[in-house]
Specification:
Chains A, B: It comes from Streptomyces humicola. Chains A, B: Its cofactor is pyridoxal 5'-phosphate. The structure is a homodimer. By secondary structure, chain A is α/β, with parallel strands linked by helices. In chain A, 38% of the residues lie in helices and 17% in strands. Chain A folds into 3 domains: 241 residues, Type I PLP-dependent aspartate aminotransferase-like (Major domain) (Aspartate Aminotransferase, domain 2, 3-Layer(aba) Sandwich); 105 residues, Aspartate Aminotransferase, domain 1 (Alpha-Beta Complex); 85 residues, 2-Layer Sandwich (Translation Initiation Factor IF3). Chain A contains 12 helices and 17 strands. In chain A, the strands form 4 sheets. Chain A has a 7-stranded mixed sheet, sandwiched between helices. A 5-stranded mixed sheet of chain A has the order 13-14-15-17-16, covered by helices on one side.
């Protein structure tokens, strides 16, 4: 099995494993105890904190270890919001943050007086510093921006946004989960959150750095552990392993960055040559070294992943059809990118050129097979026409990518300037039909409710998406 | 070094270590992914949940893994309170709960409309079910009771209290951190919280069981992991190790319980014979198998621990002088037990009879040496007398156990029926002077503010504790 899903979790780095085993022997005791084992545990914890702080580029007493990156984000956001409660209750986040940030923002919105502004991104998934400038207000307590996007790899202008925030007197929290293994966060940030298992450390360790001078009130209940910012017995062996592996991956970062960047460039260049109807998404240059995402028209993401798994490749997808919530990736949606047939390839350190080439060999056949399976839906609904909507295709009850496949099938039958309407009850169609129009240079007219159309069955509760044939 | 502090954290069980290593290889991937590594991780997680549920005595889908026992307690309490918000905002806890429970109660008290009743304990540290019955009200949302006390080992009447709660329609959360490695929680509980590193599992894993039918609303922000009750990437290798070691310690429990119970009985019997002026606290029979606590008059807890550490023994203390917060143990305070010179011995599984005997050999000399060191304070303040207070001893600026040592030194000079007053600014004196009176059969008269006494320096801000000589 070739593992190309490092952005979900990186395989344990050999240094992490070694450090973990050593710390299981040396660092199992309670570091708050006064006897020898306790003091030794405390020394290991202090040393791990020094190492992590050096990698982050801050003081050791600014770093605490949490139980996960998610917990670091939740605590960082809640603590900064509470610390600046007097300034106001306004929070600014980008629309493409990791779900942990967006969940924290939703929780804030649901709480007393919480107000959230979500910053839009361009088609590459990147925010503009000016949009942050416009969003900051007198009552803004905190702004959040990821260092780089976890789904499409686009690197964000963190240093610029930090400057904007600094000028407005607003702290900036940077979710550096995807990038901290590669480099420190640049710019004048106030808080940084990260996750050890993303850089080859063990699961169960997050990192939260809060610069001195940033007002911070840790969410209750708290205890005396980790400066009162991460309650519960310290997961010391894992913390030691996390710090050791962070140092190790940083030492390897320059060489590995160059190597993986070149491999990803190869994937970015070859996939559109090898597979028809593919959109490679995300910024081609300002990106993470190891990550690339592309979407394949007329393909079901889950089927694609299953076929790739059979062929021996582990990859991930932001398609609606693979996540447990059955909603399309909020990142792809915010970018206006196609969500169907989405594949994220994220190379782990040490990924071989041979494996990448084999992936490129296998991919075209896999996509073709899945397209063939989906290309002929068993029972196509009869097409009807309607004055206002032109040709109407009923795809109710059909999951993505069927609505787009049906649309693509009939577009040639529509006269140039004429309309075609797809009725669908799959939420992904809202994203994928406009994205298909953009890729195919067709005009997306808009959507409207399809509940009361007389030529559709009364239980129909879909949405009608209308397209005008341009070419 | 002989480790007698298993109640702080148990050494890693060999089965846990073995399972951890295996799961680092087999269970490192994201269990929510569809490829082979992800599916394998999911299977390991499901199996661990089954194993843990069997040990708890509940259904697998009632169990989630958290990042620590503290987190399990915090989430359990917050979730149950939120789930029963309509019932009311009243929370009942015992006065001797673990700090994680008390911190959660304080956070609830500080929140909108939160109201907390703390149930007192008897001198053995045990609550009465009737006191819970009296405390439950129409607006009680939740009651909490530990299965056994972590400082003195007293086992609580959980089944009885559960029955009382059930009759009142109030869910009962049981903090089973100290006992789950020995046995399931008895009675008709609603929620159970526990911590893997207390039973020989790794750090970084807690367990929260919520019975079906218990109203529960997990605190926000949440995500899709662990039924929405424990956000963040699952710490899978540690979870697998936690479940495996729970099963392993349960298999050994009957034999080990008998062995450790006998060793603790030996300590309980021998310590008062070997060391003068000692109070062994906690219930002698209804207790944890492996834990015993005693307090030595006229001894500084920190000094005692340091000497025992030098002699090769790692033990813990609830004395004011050893905790980082410098306040006396809330457990000993609630029991009305002496806090000075407090030592908690908690035997790990496999603790040897020879080590226990060596501890009993070493202890008397250690206590004697510490008492000698403290017995002659360098500069005793002049004693004065006062009409209302009798002999007055100024111990301002002196830490425990000096105030009690000074009291003990002069009591013989006080006529029977006469008064002696100790002025102290150490919070521990509030607990230790009444406890000393009880042990020495003297009458504790009471306390009052000592700020404005003319014969004391103006900066004095202590409290005056007055004692009447009875014998």
């Amino acid at each position: 099995m070739v593992y190309f899903d490092a952005a979900s979790t990186a395989p344990l780095h050999p240094v992490a494993r070694q450090a973990l085993l050593a710390a299981l022997d040396e660092g199992w005791a309670d570091p708050s105890r006064l006897y020898r084992e306790g003091r030794r545990a405390r020394m290991l914890l202090d040393a791990a904190r020094e190492t992590a702080a050096e990698a982050v580029g801050c003081r050791a007493d600014e770093v605490v270890f949490t139980s996960s990156g998610t917990r670091a984000v939740h605590t960082g956001i809640a603590g900064a919001l509470a610390g600046r409660r007097r300034a106001g209750r306004h929070l600014v986040v980008s629309a493409v943050e990791h779900s942990s940030v967006l969940h924290a923002a939703e929780a804030h919105e649901a709480a007393d007086g919480g107000d959230v502004t979500r910053i839009a991104v361009d088609r590459s998934g990147r925010v503009a510093a000016d949009d942050y400038r416009s969003a900051l207000r007198g009552d803004t307590a905190l702004a959040c921006l990821q260092s780089a996007n976890h789904e499409v790899g686009t690197v964000q202008p963190v240093a610029e946004v930090a400057e904007v925030c600094r000028a407005a007197g607003v702290p900036l929290l940077v979710d550096a989960a995807q990038s901290l293994g590669w480099e420190p966060v640049g710019g004048d940030w106030s808080l940084v959150a990260a996750s050890a298992h993303k850089w080859g450390g063990p699961a169960g360790v997050g990192l939260l750095a809060v610069r001195k001078g940033v007002r911070f009130a840790a969410p209750a209940p708290a205890d005396e552990r980790e400066h009162g910012r991460a309650p519960g017995f310290e997961n010391l062996p894992a913390i030691v392993a996390a710090a050791a592996s962070l140092r190790a991956v940083r030492e390897e970062a320059v060489a590995e960055r160059a190597r993986l960047t070149a491999l990803v460039d190869r994937i970015r260049a070859r996939v559109p040559e090898l597979v028809p109807d593919v959109e490679v998404v995300g910024d081609p240059v300002r990106r993470l070294p190891h990550l690339v995402t592309f979407s394949c028209l007329y393909v079901d993401g889950e089927a694609l992943l299953t076929e790739l798994d059979r062929a021996g490749f582990a990859v991930s997808s932001g398609s609606s059809c693979t996540s447990s919530t059955l909603t399309p990736s909020h990142v792809l949606r915010a970018m206006g990118a196609l969500s169907e047939g989405n594949v994220r390839v994220s190379l782990p350190r040490g990924a071989s050129e041979a494996d990448v080439d084999r992936f490129l060999d296998v991919l075209p056949g896999v996509v073709r097979r899945v397209r063939e399976q989906l290309g002929a839906p068993a029972a196509a609904e009869p097409e009807v026409t309607d004055e206002e909507s032109g040709l109407v295709i009923d795809t109710l009850g059909k999951r993505c990518p069927i609505p787009v496949i049906e649309l693509a099938k009939v577009i040639a039958d529509v006269p140039v300037g004429g309309l075609v309407t797809v009725v669908s009850d799959d939420e992904a169609a809202r994203l994928d039909i406009p994205a298909w129009c953009e890729m195919r240079d067709q005009e997306y007219v808009g959507e409207r409710d399809a509940v009361h159309w007389e030529h559709l069955p009364p239980e129909a509760a879909g949405v009608a998406y209308t397209v005008r044939r341009r070419t």
